[in-house]
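$ run holo --ligand "pyridoxal-5'-phosphate" --emit tokens
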Amino acid sequence: MNRILLSVPHMGGAEQRYVEEAFATNWLSTVGPNIDAFEREFEVKIGRPAVALGSGTAAMHLGLRLLGVGPGDEVVVPTLTFVASVNPVSYLGATPILVDSERASWNLDPELLAELLAARARRGKLPKAVVVVHLYGQTADMDPILAACARWGVPVLEDAAEALGATYKGRPAGTLAPLAAFSFNGNKIITTTGGGMLVAEDRSLIDRARYWSTQAREPRLEYHHVDMGYNYRMSNVLAGIGRGQLEVLDERVRARRQVAFRYRDAFAELPGLQLMPQAPWGVHTNWLSVFSLDERAFGCSRDALIAHLDAEGVESRPVWKPMHLQPLFASVESVGGAVAEELYRGGICLPSSSSLTAEEQSRVIEAVRSKARRRHEPASAGST
Ligand SMILES: Cc1ncc(COP(=O)(O)O)c(C=O)c1O
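-- output --
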């Protein structure tokens, strides 16, 4: 029996042709027609100038640097996220402030953010930037977040690594703030095996990020350097994969949503298992199908269900462990955290690939069902 994985690459068909063109023309480094075309096509799709990079983490790093983040600064980041949202803050010598989630979307709580910014303003030192993460394919509630930031003049970077294809009030994730980072990591909704994209409202910021991404090499014959750069550019081969993937993005969004809603419908009769909220303000791609499990009602713990699924040949994962619980950030200030902890403790991500077949999904559904309490069984009976 083949193992069903959490989220696997799903090629559309055209990728190989673009990659073969790169080989045929020997454009095998970090310059070439696929890179230029991928950036152009991404700009058309998203509506913002874009620079193709080696990873989403690199895009976050350059985005924060463009906002002027440096040693001694503070940057607000939601605590419920993947560590790559926070590490780039540390790369720049700045300190994160970790803020709790709200329940409607599991993303940054706008009220806590507004209170924090007001308190910092009273103290006379505002954070240098706010990172807003759109978790698991769902946008944060951007209007009150942007209003709070605008009040104090604090710029926002969207971490849209998990949210390509999502919308907020009809606008694409990644175009809601002046800067945004996307990821094409192997598990994402579309992939370049590994890669990322930084987009900005202001094209000159993208030009600067592109310059930094190639060791800030000056356009001269000799190797001349004025500024510090990085080796962060995407290769022309991987950009070819990205071009093919971008062509099927809309289909991938539809398929991921369908997977999530099929689980939701199949589990409607099970006690204590709920699809993560689908906030009313936009389209949630459900990049991952994420459920909240109430141990008492469901009949076994989240970790027991993960172990059971593993034994049945099904990969599942806990929701991101909040950053304020990580030893790496033990000394960092956090604001609230109880909501993120609760979402983490009961949160489980189920196989969500856009290529998941109906038969495979039925296997996952049966494996989950076999562990759940029967509908009329009393809640006190044998929980594991
Ligand atoms: C929320 C979030 N931010 C940033 C990243 C970093 O992207 P990458 O893996 O491409 O560096 C990821 C994904 O890995 C992510 O899930």
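-- notes --
The chain has a mean pLDDT of 96.
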